[in-house]
Amino acid sequence: MPLNNIWSIGAFALAGAVLVAAPRAGTVDLAVPGRANTTPSMAAAGSLVAVVWSAADTAGVTDIYAAVSRDSGRTFGASVRVNDVAGDARVSGEQPPHVAIRDGAQPVITVVWTANGVEGTRLAQSRSIDGGRSFSHASLVPGTDAVGNRGWEAIASERSGRVDAVWLDHRELARDTSMATSHRDLAVAGGSKPDGVAMAQKSKLYFASLDGSVAPTAITGGVCYCCKTALASGADGAIYAAWRHVYPGNLRDMAFTVSRDGGRTFAAPIRVSEDQWMLEGCPDDGPAMALDRQNRVHLAWPTLVAGADGAEPNIGIFYTSSSDGRTFSARERVPTEGTPHHPVVTVSGSLLVMAWDELKDGVRRIVVAQRALAATGSFARQVVSDETPGIYPVVVSAGDGVVVAWTSRSGSANSAIRVTRLPAGGSASGTAR
């Protein structure tokens, strides 16, 4: 990469990003002082772990930062600002910045985030070829410079090193002045309420490779327009995507597709589970997906379930798997407490590892659950956060364990991205409960 395309390391020192001292042994806090540090994502390759997140000042001006560990998440280097256009990020819990790592003698770290555009939002990308010490000037993700909003993206790195992306795209909603551009606009749009199913048909799921080798393509319409998406790349070259779909009757269930020709075409979407969640709006809570070494798909998601003995309905988190990408096992409820949201999933050796946040006794906390891939019994769960509220966890396999990160003390100026490491099959350094 030409040196004049590198976003200078010197600029980061001016930004004031630091590694905050850990609040207890075995945890690390990543933060930009005086800013709200939220929306983490994470990727790992061997012992290399990269965490990216957003940091917003009191006026809401938001930038993207990254920090890298070379010892499987035990310690991290200095935080670095990724976006070279200050304040251009527009992110949220369901559309955080995303990171991927191409492993090798010279690893490449790629970051994608939602950025402000002239007529809506677009997706920006930047790369680091020096282990996260500096990043290239940002460029557009192909196909994302269009009218209307887009985001809620996911990215995945293929074995070849190519990075792919899926995202929700609202260019057709922006062209139709009779419909609001998102469910948040319904309350202020006035007039009659638009039909949710018809509206969702104008919300598209797009796919493209970041290098432009696969042109941007709309996979399907009918996607729920504010829920995160999921993307994974298999060792056999297959590309898997999952999202929340809007089915007739405003039923918002999980959908899935696979490409076996490098993303040029995708199979007809299938319904993962008939959950029958009818909602005139978006749950703001999408799926998570991981692959194991046998290319089995592991999928987790939240949905509304009826309460027992006349109790109020509540959110449940469910899990399913597929060995062929055509059919999925019957959904299995994951053991949660209180009100859970925002599940994530990874595979660590022979273990399936999930994490989520749950509201219990007035505090939102972070929970991790594990079980053997071959098992069919209950997950062994543990609370890994302390008394400080936590939300939106992310989890990756790194070295001989897993690394979990989340937003700690969400929304406040002293919020941080808290990172902790769990040995495979074991407890976090903090108290498990």
Characteristics:
single chain; 433 residues; mainly beta; 5-stranded antiparallel sheet; 4-stranded antiparallel sheet; 4 helices; 31 strands; 46% strand; disordered C terminus
Could you characterize what this model shows?
The protein has 433 residues and is mainly β. 5% of the residues lie in helices and 46% in strands. It is built from four helices and 31 strands. It has helices at residues 9-15, 171-175, 186-189, 196-201; strands spanning 6-7, 18-20, 27-31, 36-45, 48-56, 62-69, 80-81, 98-102, 108-116, 121-128, 135-136, 139-140, 150-157, 163-169, 204-209, 217-221, 230-233, 239-247, 251-259, 270-271, 288-291, 297-305, 314-322, 332-333, 339-348, 351-360, 363-372, 380-383, 390-398, 401-408, 416-423. Mean pLDDT is 88; it is low at 1-23, 178-191 and 429-433.
Rough outline:
globular
**Order of strands in the sheet with most strands:** 2-3-31-30-29
Largest sheet: 5 strands, antiparallel
N-to-C terminal Cα separation, in Å?
Answer: 48 Å
Q: How big is the Rg?
A: 20 Å
Q: What is the tally of helical segments?
A: 4
Estimated helix fraction: under 10%
Q: Give the helix/strand class.
A: mainly beta
| Number of E-type strands | 31
Mean pLDDT: 88
Low-confidence parts: 1-23, 178-191, 429-433
Strand content: over 45%
Topology:
Blueprint: E1 6-7, H1 9-15, E2 18-20, E3 27-31, E4 36-45, E5 48-56, E6 62-69, E7 80-81, E8 98-102, E9 108-116, E10 121-128, E11 135-136, E12 139-140, E13 150-157, E14 163-169, H2 171-175, H3 186-189, H4 196-201, E15 204-209, E16 217-221, E17 230-233, E18 239-247, E19 251-259, E20 270-271, E21 288-291, E22 297-305, E23 314-322, E24 332-333, E25 339-348, E26 351-360, E27 363-372, E28 380-383, E29 390-398, E30 401-408, E31 416-423
